[in-house]
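My main concern about presentation is that the manuscript never shows what a single data entry looks like. An entry of this sort, consisting of the sequence and the corresponding backbone structure tokens, reads as follows:
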Amino acid sequence: MISLPITKRYNTLNGVQKRGLHQATLFNDQGSEYLITIGIGTPIQNFTLSLDTGSSDLWVPSIECPTEQCPLARFNESESSSFQRINSSLFHVQYGIGSVNGTYGRDEIYLGEAHVSQQQFGLASSTHDLIVVTSEKTNEISNGIFGLGHPSLTTSKEKYEPFLYQLAKQGKIDQAMFSISMGARHHDGWSGEMLIGGINNDKHVGEIQYAAVMENSSYWMVGGQSIQLIEGDKVMMNETFDGVRGMIIDTGTTLTYVDHPLADRIVQSVVGGQNNVALDQMSGTYIVNCQAENLSKDNQVHILLENDIVLEIPVKDLIIPLDGKTIKEATQCMFGIAPWMTTGTSAKMNEKGWILIGDSVLRSTYLVFDLKKNQIGFAKAAHLQAMMQSYANSVSPPSLAFLLFSVITLTLT
């Protein structure tokens, strides 16, 4: 197995690094995105990428990309003795916000100790609204995307097997799966974990329950049945769907997106009515009263999936302070569930009746993506109880500029 961090430390499982299990640290940018570091080429050129289960292509900026569009590290193919260009295939991805164009190539790809030789990947010659410099620490800024979706979602004319699928095909991991622990939003820095080839039982509590990916879906999408607001043992709001609705499990998106009427009902139920919430037209997000009465209670939003799986999200974890370190200090807060936007990919998703489950919900859950059985495992994240106790004293405000950029990072097929 291969364990890779979303953190600054290289972790081992119970002190032992097992063959075929790879662990990598994930970087938590104040809850707005989760990053991972990879190496490409001979000698290795390093890149920090957004971890994205909502798309399938791995891409980095090419040396051909103008610096105003690609201001960070750019891959120089002439400096890699193992690089091979694929001239016959153009690379293009239209995300919910932003786009990237370029070509494909093949080279050595490294993720921790995991390695695939001559892996196909995208070389961006132009980008739009995707690389935003928010810090002087360039290893803590997204400089491309590491897509973890199904091969059918790659944009190449001739479909190929992405990095993790190649690891499984070549027998380099114990099990054809990867698991993700994001950590709490206030666990800034290199504090999450991605484990390739297995499950880290220290990162979850209770049994992992599995839901099959919906039939004929190119996404990591499972069936959803209802959304509830729970206060103690009382159901304060219950939205049971007329039929099973597709829910895309997308680590590459900051917020969670539902249809507008449902979003209104959820946010008003949480903050105690429409007087405590306003829809920001520019960003398409809800600005809520940070001091609303319901936010001081240990309420939870429950998302019910098929197979009686319940995702439990503390309401406090859905309230994101924008101008203060904690909810108590902030005067402006943003809600972690938003309505689909009315144009582009968002509108098409909305028309299909889909719901996108982004980081605002997923950080409360330990996730297992099973490539072989095409299913997703869910369990309560181990940090959740500790997070509820320390939340009010340790939350840092996110970068609003990035939140506007990273709203939806998935492609539509």
Remarks:
- The first strand starts at residue 2 and ends at 7.
